[in-house]
Amino acid sequence: MTENEVSKLILDIIHDIAPDEDLSDVKPEVRLRDQLDLDSMDFLDIVMELRKRHQIEVPEAEYMELSTLAGCVKYLRPKFEAKAAARA
Amino acid sequence: MSILSPTAATAPSELIKKRPKLLTAERLKGTKDRYDLIVIGSGLAGLTVANRLGRDGHSVLLLEQHYNFGGMATWFKRQNGHIFDISLHGFPVGMIKTCRKYWTKEIADSIVPLKSIRFDNPQFSLQTTFDREDFTRILTQKFEISPENVAGFFDFARSMNFYDDQKLTTRELFQRFFPDRTDVWRLLMEPIAYANGSTLDDPAITYGIVFSNFMSKGVYTFQGGTDLLIKSMKAELHKNGVDVRNYAQVEQILVEGGRAVGVVVNGQRISARAVLSNANVKNTILDLVGEEHFAPEYVAEAKGVRMNSSSTQVYLGLRRGETLPFIGELFFTSTHPTFDSEALTALECTSRTYSFYYPEIRPGTDRYAIVASINSNYRDWADMSDEDYLRWKERYAEDAIRSLERYLPDVRAKVEHVEVATPRTFKFFTQHALATSFGTKFEGLKVSQDLPKQLPGLFHAGSVGIIMSGWLGAANYGVIVANEVDRYLRGAPDAVAKETA
Fold first, then answer.
1. Distance between CA atoms of B294 and B259, rounded to whole angstroms?
2. Which CATH number fits domain A3-87: 3.40.50.2300, 3.30.1330.30, 2.102.10.10, 1.10.1200.10?
3. How far apart are CA B313 and CA B306, in angstroms?
């Protein structure tokens, strides 16, 4: 799975949680809540959607890994790949 | 002749006789033997959990012992077209986003701002939109506090969060920024005391979080009334496949093999993979489960949780055709010299908040209602003789009208329906420990959050810790706990680890 593919899956989730946000120019290294109108409840929704759609669990202690898009990709990519490998 | 209107068939004194006949197995007809989740209680936390998880595909049964859903988000109707809302005015702007995400766009779109909030007490009399900009104007111009100091206070309050020092009290916070300015303290504290029952001696973080939520954009209400809100929520629950039952009294939470496995409701056993209680946290642990199922230290902790105060309300319904001039939707009145948390809940009442309901709140109607809210202690009311109880109710009604006559001299003649709800009434309808209408003090949040660690499969959501109180706090706490329930139900690795620990 490429970084771009992981990034798109994450942006798909954010789009469903915050439909009014323009996601065409999200800067990977800037904190998501500094460039989008996201609060802690939105991050909780992201965690729930990751579990529901992709069976990926993010423990509470690791929520901060999701603070930027680049961080999300770095943290979630191995998890996506492990899931893909398990399915294969 | 009593000032109070005749007792209605739905008043506690009448319902208590009928209740055993109402809580029947018939109420549960058609329920399944087993659900993913049973939710006990339909306050805004319970409703939101049920909807969130039902929408995500879990099978959910929601049980409510009362005939109405909504918990303290409730209303009642009386003869001659009177409708009274219990807690509709008001909540912070965040409720719009919460309703849109976890309920529907239509519900979110019906949330509108209050236009004017008034204060009148021996220290000051003023009118505000109750947001940072207007409060800054009032504090700098009327109270002559320096702009830097006001900005410093707002920024500090907004920066406070759950992980901060919990030793600092609200009194100390006020003293730090506004030393000995009890008039400023009153402006800052009185509305919050009516919003969540907190006092000057509660942790400052609870004040900072709640106050900042309100100050971001003022106070909001739901156009259409609480009845429409709950009706819309019920429709959404049905749409999402949640099985919803009223007059369903949970008597026991069943525990087997060290985990929650279902409930006994109206004498009938129903199984579930998980149970979420939206009952009071203490009732849940000590009454519904029983202390023998918990570690002694946890039981001690639960027993030590203090409750916030209860409420007394006086409902004044105007005769059809009578009107009121617009004098604001919320009016904080007091004759007490300064803000005093003790005096605020004393039986000898000196402070009351009036909520004014104009026809615009229920478009298409032409009726006016006024609800006076008073913070009260259950203990003061619990053991009164019937005679004293009636006498105090009459006095509260008379005082609420007389106090209002200072601002609306002709109001008495316009009022047709007069009714009083006391802490005993709230106790009857909510079954909460000490009839609390604002949940628990700060320590209740930890006990609530620790419940699934103590008893896997059992969760709690509801008004706890002051910050999770009120409409927004309760709904959002429901979402937070729904995430935990979802993890447990989907059997994620750390949920399993917790279970075996």
1. 11
2. 1.10.1200.10
3. 22
B493 Cβ under 8 Å from any chain A Cβ: yes
Residue B362 has pLDDT above 80, yes or no: yes
Q: What's the pLDDT band for B500 if we cut at 50, 70, 90?
A: very low
Mark yes or no for CB contact A57/B479 under 8 Å. Answer: no
B494 with A47: Cβ contact below 8 A = no
Residue B238 CB neighbours (<10 A): 12
**Contact criterion met (CB < 8 Å) for B101 and A17:** yes
Residues 67-86 of A with CB under 8 A from B: none
Q: Is A47 on the interface with B (CB under 8 A)?
A: yes
Which residues in B lie closer than 8 A to residue A55 (C-beta atoms)?
Answer: 490
ipTM of this complex = 0.88
- C-alpha distance from B492 to closest chain A C-alpha (Å): 7
Residue of B nearest to A16 (CA): B101
Whether residue B462 contacts residue B41, with contact meaning beta carbons closer than 8 Å, is answered with yes
Whether residue A45 lies within 8 A of chain B, CB to CB, comes out as: yes
B178-to-B73, B119, B154, B157, B158 alpha-carbon distances in Å: 35, 19, 12, 13, 17
Tell me B291's DSSP state: G
Mean pLDDT of B320-324: 97
Residues B280, B198, B45, B432, Cα dihedral to 10°: 20
> B176 CB contacts (<8 Å, ≥6 apart)?
none
Q: Could you tell me whether strands B330-334 and B351-357 are parallel, antiparallel, or unpaired per DSSP bridges?
A: antiparallel
Establish if A19 touches chain B: CB-CB under 8 angstroms.
no
Closest residue in chain B to residue A57, using alpha carbons only = B492
CA B28 – CA A47 distance, rounded (Å): 35
Do B98 and A41 lie within an 8 Å CB cutoff?
yes
For residues B271 and B34, is the Cβ–Cβ distance under 8 A?
yes
What gap in Å lies between CA B287 and CA A80, rounded to an integer?
44
**CB of A38 within 8 Å of any CB in chain B?**
no
The DSSP 8-state label assigned to residue B7 in this structure reads P
Q: Which of A13, A49, A55, A57 to mutate to test the interface with B (most CBs of B within 10 A)?
A: A57
Q: Whole-prediction pTM value?
A: 0.95
Q: How far is CA A80 from CA A10, A83, B501, in A?
A: 11, 5, 27
| Interchain contact, A59 vs B483, CB within 8 Å | no
d(CA B289, CA B455): 10
Instruction: Please name the residue that has the structure tokens 């298409």.
Output: B364
- What's the rounded Cα separation, in Å, for the pair B444 and B138? 35
Q: For chain A, which residues make up each domain, given as ranges?
A: 3-87
pLDDT tens-digit map of B383-433: 999 999 999 999 999 999 999 999 999 999 999 999 999 999 999 999 999
Whether the upstream peptide bond of residue B90 has omega within 30° of 0, thus cis, is yes
Contacts of B98 in chain A (CB under 8 A): 41
pLDDT band of residue B492 (cuts 50, 70, 90) is low
Task: Residue B482: list chain A partners with CB under 8 A.
Answer: 48
